[in-house]
């Protein structure tokens, strides 16, 4: 099918904004994909043969299953007409206003856009824009030594795409700073079929990062003094000490924060909050300007 034919059948593509996220293989692109997509206000990502809408795979098959490097590249570029048509069909269904394409080079993301009949890329984010040299080296070392690959969707969304394997997720919560939306990624570890049901594990650090991020977004809380997390498998216990901002009702401020924190933690991790204690140790009084 010619590209002009594709655009004629899918006129919305002409107005679609196409963004790219570029970086060498194994440097953490997929890990940060949801964050970059959020900054571009786009809900759709193309990564390694998959079309992802928010946290759901809506079309394609992961190129990470390929047995050779050549096959992986071909699959990620949508060389096969069948693979291409599946993605185009999904695009026609969802009619996204924008999309983020991941690739290892400018040429690769441009080729993906061209193969799918998408408009030219309007803006490119490079891995060096969002990750430090140390973070990229760490990601690369894990890829080479441990063979871990990241796919920017929940593991249970893509389990059907990896017949005979289990992807055991370790969710990582990241914040870009005060006032900016957080994002969640998963590191996926291949396991043999006999442990197919696996074990859903979440690091204590995840809970600490979530609640501390929420605290920074709460006007009544000036500073976090201490956070302690105990994970019991069936649920988590969290203890936090804070400094309250002068002018806020301590009891109401902490109550509102606890309700919000409990709801968000359970939504993001699917684990119960067995106990959540937040203690106000002191009050911060801003100095008056002369």
Which CATH class of the largest domain is shown? Alpha Beta
Corresponding CATH architecture of the largest domain = 3-Layer(aba) Sandwich
User: What is the 3D shape?
Assistant: elongated
CATH topology name of the largest domain:
Rossmann fold
Largest sheet at a glance?
6 strands, mixed
Number of strands: 12
Quote the beta fraction. Answer: 25-35%
Alpha-beta classification? alpha/beta
Query: How are helices and strands ordered from N to C?
Result: HEHEEEHHEHEHHEHEEHEEHE
**Rg calculated over all Cα atoms:** 22 Å
Tally the structural domains: 2
Q: How many helical elements?
A: 10
- Biggest β-sheet: strands ordered side by side in the sheet: 4-3-2-5-1-6
Low-confidence stretches: 1-9, 154-173, 184-200
The percent range for helix content is 25-40%
Q: Give the distance, in angstroms, between the N- and C-terminal Cα atoms.
A: 72 Å
Mean pLDDT: 76
């Amino acid at each position: 099918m010619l590209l002009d034919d594709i655009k004629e059948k899918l006129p919305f593509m002409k107005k679609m904004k196409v963004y790219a996220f570029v970086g060498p293989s194994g440097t953490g692109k997929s890990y940060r994909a949801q964050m970059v997509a959020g900054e571009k206000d786009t809900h759709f990502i193309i990564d390694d043969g998959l079309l992802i809408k928010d946290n759901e795979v809506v079309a394609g098959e992961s190129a990470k299953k390929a047995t050779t490097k050549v096959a992986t590249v071909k699959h990620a570029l949508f060389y096969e007409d069948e693979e291409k048509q599946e993605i185009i069909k999904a695009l026609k269904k969802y009619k996204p206003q924008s999309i983020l394409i991941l690739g290892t080079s400018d040429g690769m993301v441009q080729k993906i856009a061209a193969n799918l009949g998408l408009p030219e890329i309007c803006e490119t984010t490079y891995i060096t824009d969002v990750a430090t040299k140390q973070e990229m080296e760490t990601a690369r070392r894990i890829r080479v030594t441990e063979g871990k690959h990241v796919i920017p969707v929940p593991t249970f969304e893509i389990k059907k795409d990896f017949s005979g394997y289990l992807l055991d997720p370790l969710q990582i919560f990241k914040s870009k700073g005060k006032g900016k939306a957080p994002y969640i990624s998963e590191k996926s570890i291949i396991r043999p079929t006999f442990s197919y049901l696996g074990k859903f594990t979440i690091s204590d650090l995840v809970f600490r990062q979530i609640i501390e991020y929420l605290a920074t977004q709460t006007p009544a809380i000036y500073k976090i003094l201490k956070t302690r997390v105990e994970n019991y498998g069936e649920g988590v216990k969290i203890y936090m000490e804070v400094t309250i901002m002068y002018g806020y009702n301590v009891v109401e401020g902490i109550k509102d924060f606890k309700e919000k924190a409990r709801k968000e933690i359970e939504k993001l991790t699917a684990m119960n909050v067995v106990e959540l204690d937040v203690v106000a140790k002191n009050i911060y009084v801003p100095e008056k300007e002369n």
